[in-house]
Structures are given as structure tokens and as C-alpha cells.
Amino acid sequence: MKLIYIALIGLTTAAVFTACSEDKKKDKEVEAPSIPTVDPQGLKIAFYESDSLNEGFTFLKTQDSLLKIKQEKFQKDLESRQRNLEAKYNQLVEGEQKMIYTAAELQSKKMEFERQSQSLQMYQQNEGTKLQEEAMEMQKVLQNKVSEFSKRYCEKYKIDMLIMHGEGGQFSYYNPKMDVTKSFIEFVNAEQKKL
Q1: Are 145 and 192 in contact (CB under 8 A)?
Q2: What are the DSSP calls for 87-153, one per residue?
């Protein structure tokens, strides 16, 4: 009797496992979505080299050089202010060592130096932030221009997909026949002149 009972439990367990595994197979067999395909014979894909765009797009080069001039001017101004503050600090230390200041004068000069030091830090932070924001805004304008010009270029030459290729990009090889870099740079410069 025990033997029959154990056999029934074994058969019941096997039936449950079989039913569960069949349910899992049904869950995995999800119907694939219907995705329209494009005829590969009619699909036109081209690419341009991003580095060449950086070197050849006149607007980008002009904006980039203007930003660099501002950054260099800020850097020189900051260095000049730092040198002046350092000279004041050295005068303060020298005066303190030679004991040419009264205690009240020394305290006043230290407080003035601290105020100037904090002012320099604020200047550096504020002007640095302005330059960073300007660079980000320029990048945004550039991306919008390239996006719009890419659209116009593709519409004009009936290109379905224009890909920006650069070092470290997602695609490691393109057929050189698909390279429209020179043509695209000429196009974006011509479009920019129209604006």
C-alpha cells in the first residue's frame, strides 16, 4: 500500500512539473512584432567624418576661435589678479615680520587681504561659469545647425540616412563610396552663408 501511495505521489509530481514547463514554453513563444522593412536596393546611406566637419565648417571654426579668445583673456586676467594678490600677501608677511604695523593695522590688513582673496575666488567662479555656459550654448546652436543642415542635405540628395562617423563611433567600417564629407561640408558652409 505504501508502495502504491509513493508511486502516486511520484506520478502527480511529474505531471505538475510537466504542466509547469509547458506553461513556461508557451510564455516564451511570444509572437514577433510586425516591422516594416525597407528595400535594401533603394535605401541610400551616406556618412561624413565629424573631425572634418570640425575643421571645415566655417561657422564652427569662427565660434570656436571667438570662445578661445575669451577663455585666453579670462585666463590672463585671472593670472594677473592672482599675481597682484600674491604680491599683497608677500607685503603683508614682510610687514608683519619687520613689525612695521600696529596690531590694529595688521588685523585690518589681514581682513582686507581675506576680502580680496574671496573676491578673486568669486570672480574666478562666476566668469568661469559664464564661459562654460557660453560654450554649452554654442554647442547647442551648432548641434541644431548640423541637424537642420543634415535634413536639408538628405532631402536635396534623396539620402535616407546620413551618419556622422568619428573615432570611437558605433560603426568601425564604412564603404568609402558612402563618404560624402567634402560635399556635406561645402553644403553646410553654403547654407550658413544664406542665413
Answers
A1: yes
A2: HHHHHHHHHHHTT-S-HHHHHHHHHHHHHHHHHHHHHHHHHHHHHHHHHHHHHHHHHHHHHHHHHHH
Q: Quick one: which H or E segment has residue 161?
A: strand 161-165
Nine-digit cell at 47? 556618412
Q: Which residues of 41-78 are buried (b: 16+ CB within 10 A; e: fewer)?
A: eeeeebbbbbebbeebbebbeebeeeeeeebeebeeee
Closest CA to 110 of 95, 98, 120: 95
pLDDT tens track for 69-123: 999 999 999 999 999 999 999 998 998 888 898 889 989 989 999 999 999 999 9
Rounded to two decimals, the pTM is 0.65
Q: Three cell numbers at 86?
A: 600674491
**Rounded CA separation 168/190 (Å):** 29
Note the pLDDT tens digit of each residue in 67-81: 999 999 999 999 999
Are 85 and 78 spatial neighbours (Cβ–Cβ below 8 Å)?
Answer: no
Closest CA to 66 of 140, 35, 58: 58
In sequence order, which residues have a C-beta less than 8 Å from that of residue 160 and are 6 or more positions away? 38, 43, 44, 45, 154
- C-alpha cell of 140? 547647442
Q: What type of residue is 44?
A: K
Task: Please report which confidence band the pLDDT of residue 56 belongs to, taking 50, 70 and 90 as the band edges.
Answer: very high
> SS3 of 182, please?
helix
